[in-house]
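Support case: zinc ion complex. Customer-provided input:
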Amino acid sequence: MSTTRYIRIFDTTLRDGEQAPGASMNRAEKLEVARQLAKLQVDVIEAGFPVASPDDFDAVRAIAREVEGARVCGLARAIENDVRVCWDAVRHAEAPRIHTFISTSAVHMKYQIRKTPDEVKADTRAMVTLAAELAATRAEADVEFSAMDASRSEPEFLAEVLGIAVEAGATTINIPDTVGYAQPLEFGDFIRELYRLCPALADVTVSCHCHDDLGLAVANSLAAVRAGATQVECAVNGIGERAGNASLEEVVMAIRTRGDYFAAETGVKTDEIARTSRLVSNVTGYAIQPNKAIVGRNAFAHESGIHQDGILKEASTFEIMRAADVGLAESDLVLGKHSGRHALRAKLADLGYELSDAELDEAFRRFKDVADKKKEVTLLDLEALVGEEIRERQDLFTLRSFVSQSGSAIIPTSQVEIEVRGRVRRGKSFSNGTVESVFKAIDDAVRMKGSLADYQVRAISEGKDALAEVRVAVTVNGETYNGQAVSFDVMEASAKAYVRAMNNAAGAQGRERLQARAAATAKGQ
Ligand code: KIV
Ligand code: ZN
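Agent response - structure generated as follows:
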């Protein structure tokens, strides 16, 4: 009989991941990411925090209704309205989950939620019971309970709260290291101690949720798996609150590569990892560092002669995983100048894009444009162009054209045309640098003021004819918004990336205004 344990992968890219500064995604982007997570075959998609805003609610509900193949979960504080709103958002999913949480550490109870330990126990019982009653109306629904700041909680008290949650109907119990304070050996022992203090844990799924403040989120998660946890909460590229969450790709590949050590496996389709990672990077604007484990550009590059020699003789000398295992070996040639619409449609379908005829026409136009300038159109090029085209369709502002004049003897001057709801707005500006003058011209056209916090350029693939990718972080009214875009022309990619960041800012600030108006109306003002 096999003793291999199945470890559930609970992806929180769309909830905790989205809490990373500037990483906010619109509804269409969240749906695109959720569909890809389902293709990656994660077990649970935490789609958002429905009570946080009408947009969050809407995105969670859309994912619950439209995405198949994974359990869809929403987060709720242990507050009645949160739990009910959460259920409304997730209940149409194939398999819905309410994830409710309350703090259990002394410092959080005293200063953050201002509740006594008895009140925390009472709220846990009442809200898990409510969540379980709501979930009981659908056979496939279930309830998860999290004890926030569990790793800094007093074990006996925590065990008591967890016991109450199980008794009230939670079938997954999550032990978060909310502030990334735990150390791997200690965290493993902590989980073992909780199993001892709370025997009811033996009958439910024990989960971990680790933050990376000390760079230990993955190590702590794996220590929890060794100690008996069978669910790991993680985010693609490790994005999330502050230093982020445990990185999904690292957790999954550690369990796969060292299945012997963990006696465990996940259901993740690992050759979808690289693609998922690129998608999340593009929609959040968070670049992947070249030496990032598993998905970094250099993760499988053997530089030293000794290593290369070893690999040629026998790959296992220096290779513990193959690039193909994570879907990284696919940046080869896919289509050429003479490829037709059918070939493009088939390739895009492979990538998961089902396009209407009109969308295919536009994708084909962009493809031809690239194929005319570049001999080989790679999968990475296609993904970047079509993904951008799909995302642009949701935007309020679209760059129609720009003109820049620059040189060593003149002051750089730029003019732009931006389409806003079918009308063209023009903007112009001059500045000390060309890039800055384009950005100021865009500010002029969109009537918002952004200040550049970060600017990065890189080539999408190899060769002088490669597409350029630009990422920007722009601060608007004290909040940071990311933007990413590709083009053959670095200035055009810069302008588009800046416009995308301004779209994110306009979306977020528009939502805030609507919410403020709704709150004022509710108060009768
Ligand atoms: O970090 C944390 O404790 C959380 C909980 C809401 C699970 O994100
Ligand atoms: Zn968290």
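Residues 397-512 form a domain with the Double Stranded RNA Binding Domain fold (CATH 3.30.160.270).

Case will auto-close in a few days if no follow-up is received.
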